[in-house]
Protein: Histidine kinase
Amino acid sequence: MRIFSGQASPVQLQWLIWGFVFIINFISLLPMDGVPQSAAFTIVNTGFYAIIIYGNLHFLLPVFYREGRLLPYVFFSLLFLALVGISKSYLSQYLYNRFFAEEYTPMNARMLIYTSVTGIVVYVLSFVFRFALGYFKLKQQAEEIIAQKSQAELNLLKSQVQPHFLFNTLNNIYYEAYREAPRTAIFIERLSEIMRYFVDESPKEEVTLGTEIQFLENYIALERIRIRHEVDISFTQQCQPGTGIPPMLLMTFVENIFKHGIDKSSSRNEVHISLLQQDGYLVFRTRNLLHPAQAGNNGSGFGIQNLQKRLALLYGAHFELKTYAAGQYFNAFLKIPLS
Structure:
């Protein structure tokens, strides 16, 4: 049971409280009434305490008070306490006369007043009981969240073992290749940097423009290898490398260029990319020559649709995103505010 590990559940905690109430009540009655009578009246008292507390917590509060019906709540609370008090008084008197009294004792006003006052005290304590349970639940939830966070961090560390093993292996291959084929070593280094970006940078909420630009340049360099003919690519930048932006915002356009905007069988491919920072905004443009395979592609694929949704979540309506064909070129335009 979790109760012995300091992690008692709310139900177990309530059983502990009621067990404590029962013992205290029994001990207080024992010197005057003896064991049988003390046990009987302790059961009655504890039962009626529970009726008052749970009646308030599970019926009166949710049905009336939480719905803003204050006057009905007060009225039905008083009626509830009166009915419970009278019932307890008559039940206690019946048990006493039936099993323990030497001679019949009639009900009197003093007994009713004592039972009513006791009921009011228990009714007030029901709020303390509710707050105590609420605090316990919140504390338990906080402990569970901390435990889940620790487990998630542990899982993250475990998940990073294999990528970092791969990075170290790539580094070893890089040094071997550098001695035999320096150009191949450069591509291995760029691939390693791309993979490190995915593992270390992309999960972050924000990266620097310098990091994002380096990622794009590495990606462009590796894509060049896959193209038979040389591609005329220009990438101009007028921005502050330390400026922060969400990761992977610019990648969709560049990826679409190499996926749809390059004719690998042609020696005439032209790509222009520009990144400009001005007046608190970042403006990103791409332009590539249209070819027959791209003519039917209007730039509204899943990549652009997903980017549109992400931008809406990040910036609301404070961004511009356009893709369009103009003459022999296909253009993409993105403008986002900088924090």
Notes: DSSP finds eight helices and seven strands in the chain. Residues 2-151 form one domain. The first helix runs from residue 10 to 65. The helical segments are 10-65, 70-100, 109-180, 182-201, 209-225, 251-260, 292-295, 302-315.
